[in-house]
Amino acid sequence: MFTPPKRPHRLGRSRFSAQREKRIADAAANAMQSVTSRLSPPRTPRIVEDEQVEQTANETTGVAEISGVQEYNSTVTAKPPTFFNEGGLLNPRYTFDAFIVGKSNQLAHAASLAVSENPGRIYNPLFLYGGVGLGKTHLLHAVGHVGEAAGLTVLYVTSEKFTNEIINAIRFQKTEEFREKYRQIDILLVDDIQFIAGKESTEEEFFHTFNSLHIANKQIVVTSDRPPKAIPSLQDRLRSRFEWGLLADVQAPEYEHRLAILRSKADSLHFAIPSSVIDYIARAESHSVRELEGSLNRVIAYATLQDAPITVKLASQALEHIYSEKKQHTALTVSEVLVGVSRYYNVDADLLRGKQRDRDIVWPRQVAMYLMREETSASWLQIGTELGGRDHTTVIHGWEKVHAEMAHSDRVRHEIAAVLESLQRGQI
Ligand SMILES: Nc1ncnc2c1ncn2[C@@H]1O[C@H](COP(=O)(O)OP(=O)(O)OP(=O)(O)O)[C@@H](O)[C@H]1O
Q1: 12 marked as binding residue
Q2: pTM, whole model, 2 decimals?
Q3: Atom of ligand 1 nearest to the CA of 253
Q4: Is 327 within any annotated ligand binding site?
Q5: Residue 137 is assigned to a ligand binding site
Q6: Is 157 in a helix, a strand, or coil?
Q7: Whose Cα sits closest to atom 20 in ligand 1?
Q8: What is the pLDDT of residues 47-69, one digit of tens each?
Q9: Does 290 sit in the ligand 1 pocket, CB within 6 Å?
């Protein structure tokens, strides 16, 4: 039977003074820095963080995009845009070699490897989707590295950066230069494509970019936190183009996979971590590899700070606040499930409560029934009431339908896990 993933940790800090926590975090960060600089030569600076790029772009242009409508703030001094990446934007750490393959990411990895070796020829576009911190960006960059090594023109861009470039291009009448740049690319890598949804001119321009690259057999790889059909307000013509190639999802790693990832991370830090400690960290249910990496870094930093050997006891102290926060999760409520399911499937909550029997509405309604039963303490009767006064037998039937589909289909299992994850994220 499907065991729904546990909820990710919430941000509440009631049991810990924020000050104490900050002191540990600062000290850990400092210690980590000194550890890593002692152990390995300084790396090429990491890829510029997206936030920095966006912030700079927005500060420079004074452009705000509100509900898909672009507005210009004329009080900010405007500078002409720079269109071309300065290069080196691929993170050197994000290679195929450094990517640990497991059941949860097998398809996404194999597809990424295949397109990197044969760009524009097999899965085009490749659409990678899944929850936070599960390696989508890592795979995107890995494809880029292989392309660059083969001498191809690779462009990695976040959808926010793409949006900002379009806004700038329109503003400074440089749309031709913008198009020219995008049409010279052999491999276009776009991160977090879900953010272009609802931004009219960005979708329009992306649609044309997509078509001209696709016709020319140039490779397009995009990532998203959800499959195309679940991105609200995405234009249908883009949605169908995303579904043209291959959709590959990444899921949270299971225990053995978490172990392998942690071992590899510890090796890359040149740190001998006892297997009991690796096991201790891996045992915590985690929805994100980023979170796992954070736990490992914290344990190493904690040990360095205290000048103590790395033991399970020390690891449990270092991670105490994280685990105790995980235990404080509150259950979802039926109305949170309703709102979350409606948001995920882009179906109005009133339609979920209503009588319409269209397939597009019936399935999300049944998913809501299933998740209300599994994730809240509500009775069949209460769930029926929340869903527009339905009889409890209807709710049981809905639950059974989803349960049976999940038993037969990986795709449905993944879909339900993705809905649940989006509910949990919405709750934080
Ligand atoms: N299978 C894996 N093997 C090794 N490292 C991994 C793996 N999956 C994820 N990571 C690491 O976890 C971190 C987060 O991964 P990444 O940024 O690619 O996640 P993401 O899915 O793009 O998340 P987001 O949606 O938040 O952008 C990175 O440091 C990445 O190297």
Answers
A1: no
A2: 0.65
A3: 1
A4: no
A5: yes
A6: strand
A7: 133
A8: 223 333 333 333 333 333 323 32
A9: yes
Q: Which of 111, 97, 411, 101 is nearest to 256 (CA)?
A: 101
For residue range 228-253, list pLDDT tens digits in order.
Answer: 988 878 899 999 999 999 999 999 89
CA of 91, closest atom in ligand 1: 31
Per-residue pLDDT band at 306 (split at 50, 70, 90): confident
Do 138 and 233 sit in the same domain of this protein?
yes
User: What DSSP string describes 52-73?
Assistant: HHHHHHHHHH-EEEETTEEEE-
Report the pLDDT value the prediction gives residue 422, as an integer from 0 to 100.
81
Is residue 196 one of the residues assigned to a domain? yes
Tell me, using a 6 A CB cutoff, whether residue 293 lines ligand 1: yes
Supply the ipTM of this predicted assembly. Answer: 0.99
Ligand 1 in reach of 137 Cβ (< 6 A): yes
- 278 and 221 inside one domain: no
193 lines ligand 1 (CB under 6 A): no
* Domain coverage including residue 323: 18-40+269-327
Q: Rounded CA gap, 387 and 375, in Å?
A: 16
Closest by alpha carbon to 314, among 327, 295, 291? 295
Measured CA angle at 158 (ends 60, 104), to 5 deg = 155
CA of 256 to the centre of ligand 1 (A): 17
* 163 and 89 belong to one structural domain: yes
131 is in an annotated binding site: no
Q: Are residues 377 and 277 in the same domain?
A: no
